[in-house]
């Protein structure tokens, strides 16, 4: 018989932002996590795996065995290790679009690429960094940028969007993941972005690491992007567990 090591989970959760933060990482409600802990019984392999990921501790320490020798059933450990192997990589996609207004400057991937027009946004409206943040959060199963950095929060008004990427990367590194590669596509009618590609690539490499690729194109005069009224970006990221 195996039971969850309730005291240890609560203790570690305190350092990870509390049980509510852990339940979000598990993709379950706080109520479910509480009942799982209260029931004091084992949970599914999938949930065990997520607990290991969320708390960053080995499976063995999360479980308490009633066996006299304290050992874990081999079948459970083998099944768990098999699950770990298939989750060495995680992929995430992000998309962002902002309308443009006159005045201000246009930031893309943390690089100033134009003056005289700018995104309508709560923060600096950097569509690349917003799409990258969403891709990173998506890969980790942590929801989206609006949940982590609400645009109703005055704290983010006019904020440099690299803050969103950096805060998200801290969570990713804490779970022992690193960026394998990041592929970004920017859709903008203006300005011509080729001269800024290298600076944008370097900035993204500094922020997230890994292999970075930045592509840019117009929207062939189609829709609001093609009319120069909006700007958008897609990002796809692959995360790799480093241990
Ligand atoms: Zn945005």
What's the structural blueprint in terms of helices and strands?
Elements: E1 2-4, H1 6-15, H2 18-26, H3 30-39, H4 45-55, H5 59-62, E2 63-65, H6 74-86, E3 89-108, E4 111-119, H7 127-140, H8 145-148, H9 162-174, E5 177-187, H10 197-208, E6 211-217, H11 223-226, E7 230-241
Parallel strand pairs: 5-6
Antiparallel strand pairs: 1-2, 3-4, 3-7, 5-7
The chain binds zinc ion (ZN).
Zinc ion is lined by residues 96, 98, 121, 125, 127, 130.
Structural description of this entry:
By secondary structure, the protein is α+β, with helices and mostly antiparallel strands. It has two domains: 2-86, Orthogonal Bundle (434 Repressor (Amino-terminal Domain)), CATH 1.10.260.40; 89-241, 2-Layer Sandwich (60s Ribosomal Protein L30, Chain: A). The protein is 43% helix and 27% strand. It has eleven helices and seven strands. It has helices at residues 6-15, 18-26, 30-39, 45-55, 59-62, 74-86, 127-140, 145-148, 162-174, 197-208, 223-226, and strands spanning 2-4, 63-65, 89-108, 111-119, 177-187, 211-217, 230-241. The strands form two sheets. The chain has a five-stranded mixed beta sheet with strand order 4-3-7-5-6. β5, α10 and β6 form a beta-alpha-beta unit. α7 runs parallel beside α9 (162-174). The longest helix has 14 residues, at 127-140. The two termini are 29 Å apart. The mean pLDDT is 86. Bound molecules: zinc ion (ZN).
């Amino acid at each position: 018989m195996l039971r969850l090591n309730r005291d240890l989970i609560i203790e570690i959760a305190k350092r990870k932002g509390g049980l509510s933060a852990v339940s979000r990482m598990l993709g379950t409600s706080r109520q479910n996590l509480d009942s799982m802990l209260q029931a004091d019984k084992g949970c599914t392999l999938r949930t065990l795996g997520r607990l290991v990921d969320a708390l960053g501790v080995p499976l063995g320490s999360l479980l308490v065995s009633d066996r006299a020798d304290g050992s874990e059933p081999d079948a459970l450990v083998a099944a768990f290790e098999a699950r770990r192997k298939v989750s060495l990589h995680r992929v995430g996609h992000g998309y962002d679009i902002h309308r443009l207004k006159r005045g201000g400057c246009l930031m893309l991937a943390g690089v100033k690429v134009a003056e005289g027009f700018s995104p309508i946004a709560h923060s600096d409206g950097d569509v690349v960094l917003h799409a990258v943040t969403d891709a990173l959060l998506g890969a980790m199963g942590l929801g989206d940028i609006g949940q982590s950095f609400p645009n109703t929060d005055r704290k983010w008004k006019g904020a440099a969007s690299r803050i969103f990427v950096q805060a998200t990367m801290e969570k990713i590194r804490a779970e022992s993941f690193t960026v394998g590669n990041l592929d970004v596509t920017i859709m903008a009618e203006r300005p011509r972005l080729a001269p800024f590609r290298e600076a944008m690539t370097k900035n993204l490499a500094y922020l997230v690491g890994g292999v970075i690729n930045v592509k840019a194109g117009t929207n062939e005069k189609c829709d609001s992007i093609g009319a120069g009224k909006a700007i958008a970006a897609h990002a796809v990221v692959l995360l790799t567990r480093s241990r």
